[in-house]
Specification:
Layout (H helix, E strand, L loop, with lengths): L4 E6 L6 H12 L3 E3 L18 H6 L2 E2 L12 H16 L4 E5 L3 H8 L10 H14 L1 H11 L1 H6 L5 H14 L3 H4 L10 E8 L2 H17 L2 H7 L15 H7 L5 H24 L4 E5 L4 H14 L1
Parallel strand pairs: 1-4, 1-5, 2-3, 2-4, 5-6
Helix pairs in contact: 3-4, 5-6, 5-8, 6-8, 10-13, 12-13
C-alpha cells in the first residue's frame, strides 16, 4: 500500500494551475515541485509567468528560477533531481504537489523516462545539416510524416526535440510516441492527477490577456536584456523568439505581440491534445467555487 501521495496539477498554459497548486499545498501544509521547464530559468520570470514573490511566499516551491539560461539541464537530470526532492518532502509530509504544463517533464516524474537509445552521431550530423540548409520547417515535415501523433503534441519550435525524436525513430524503426508511451519505472508514491478545464474561447481570452499583462509588467525589457542569449535553447520559446525578431527590425511590435498570442494559443492546443488522451485526470472547472474545492478534497481523500 503506497501511503505517499503526489497530487499532479496539469492543464494548458494560462488556465490557473499555479493558484490551484498553492491552494492545495496550503490545505495539506506541504511543498510544491514545479515541472514547468521554462520556469527553471531565473532570468525569464515575466515571459514564463513564473509565480510572483507573493505566491512563492504562500507555499514552498522547488525548481522555480533555479537555473541560469546558460546552464544545460536535461529532462533526465530533472527526473533525478525531482525524485530526490520528492523523497525529501515525503520525509516530513505524506502529500506533495507537482505542477506544470511541460507534459514530458510531468511524465518523467510520475512514470519515468524510457530507456531510449543514445543519440546517433551520423543521424545528428545529417539532421543538423537539414536544419542549417532547409530550416526547422523541414524537420517539422519529416517528423509529421514519421510520427503524426508526436507531432501533434511536441513543441515544434524546439529543434532539439525534433532532432531527438527523428533520431530515435530512425534508429529503432518505431514511432517515438509509442516508445515514450510505455512506462519504464514504477514509483513508490501514488499519483492523483488534477486538471482545470475551460471553454476554448475562454482559455484563449485568458492567454491573450496574460500576454498583455506580461507586457505591462516589463516583458519587452526582460527580452531585451536576454537578446544576447537568443541562440540558447532556453530562449527559443514563445514570448522571446517573437520579440527577438522585432528587435532585429523584421516585425513591428504589434505584429510581434499578435504572434506571441497566436503561438501561446497553439501551445495550449497541443497541451490539450496531450491531456485529452489521459483517462486519469479529475477536472475542475475554471473559476471553481469553494464548494468545488471542497468536493476536490473529498475526491482526493477517496483516492488516497
Amino acid at each position: 500500500m503506497k501511503n505517499k501521495i503526489l497530487i499532479s496539477v496539469v492543464g494548458p498554459t494560462g488556465i490557473g494551475k499555479t493558484r490551484l497548486a498553492i491552494d492545495l499545498a496550503k490545505h495539506f501544509n506541504t511543498e510544491i515541485v514545479s515541472c514547468d521547464s521554462r520556469q527553471f530559468f531565473r532570468e525569464m520570470k515575466i515571459g514564463t509567468a513564473s509565480p510572483s514573490a507573493e505566491e512563492l511566499a504562500e507555499a514552498k516551491h522547488h525548481f522555480i528560477g533555479n537555473l541560469g539560461v546558460e546552464e544545460y539541464y536535461s529532462i533526465g537530470q530533472y527526473e533525478t533531481d525531482a525524485l530526490n526532492k520528492l523523497n525529501e518532502i515525503f520525509e516530513n509530509h505524506t502529500i506533495a504537489i507537482l505542477v506544470g504544463g511541460s507534459m514530458m517533464y510531468e511524465k518523467a516524474v510520475i512514470e519515468g523516462l524510457n530507456d531510449l537509445p543514445e543519440s546517433n552521431e551520423a543521424n545528428q550530423k545529417k539532421l543538423q545539416e537539414i536544419l542549417q540548409n532547409e530550416g526547422i520547417e523541414k524537420l517539422q515535415d519529416i517528423l509529421k510524416e514519421l510520427d503524426p501523433s508526436y507531432f501533434e503534441v511536441v513543441d515544434i519550435h524546439n529543434y532539439r526535440r525534433l532532432l531527438r525524436a527523428i533520431d530515435v525513430i530512425w534508429q529503432t524503426g518505431k514511432k517515438y510516441s509509442e516508445l515514450i508511451a510505455v512506462s519504464q519505472n514504477s514509483r513508490d508514491f501514488k499519483v492523483i492527477r488534477i486538471g482545470i478545464e475551460a471553454q476554448r474561447e475562454e482559455l484563449y481570452e485568458r492567454i491573450n490577456s496574460r500576454v498583455d499583462l506580461m507586457l505591462e509588467n516589463g516583458l519587452l525589457e526582460e527580452a531585451k536584456s536576454l537578446e544576447h542569449f537568443k541562440d540558447l535553447t532556453a530562449l527559443k520559446t514563445v514570448g522571446y523568439t517573437e520579440l527577438f525578431t522585432y528587435f532585429e527590425g523584421d516585425w513591428d511590435l504589434d505584429f510581434a505581440i499578435s504572434e506571441i498570442k497566436k503561438n501561446s494559443r497553439r501551445y495550449a492546443k497541443r497541451q490539450l491534445t496531450w491531456y485529452r488522451k489521459a483517462d486519469d485526470i479529475h477536472y475542475l472547472s475554471l473559476g471553481y467555487s469553494d464548494k468545488d474545492f471542497q468536493d476536490l478534497l473529498e475526491y482526493i481523500q477517496q483516492k488516497k
